[in-house]
Predict the structure.
Amino acid sequence: RELCDLVSSLYHSSRHSDDHEIKKQIEEADKINEKLTSSSLSYNGTTLSYTTNPQAVYTSRLLDFKNLPEPKNAIDNKDDDNYSESIEAIDFTKLNLGNYLH
């Protein structure tokens, strides 16, 4: 119920308020993205945005991740089964919010 109220509140405030913080941030991000599209590179259907130096030499190499050591901050994974069952993905598209969004 709390989640529905929060989603409903965000939905209404973003639709009915021109000065809402989220709307401001989205508009600001859109403006930044418009400026970056002229200097962006297209790679495999996605857009990469960065500046390169024409005098620099760029190289790449494959990294071998097969023999990585155990992380020093690794937790004990004996409860992984219980943990994974307690976390379930929420598909917001299947939530019935129709009654709360009016």
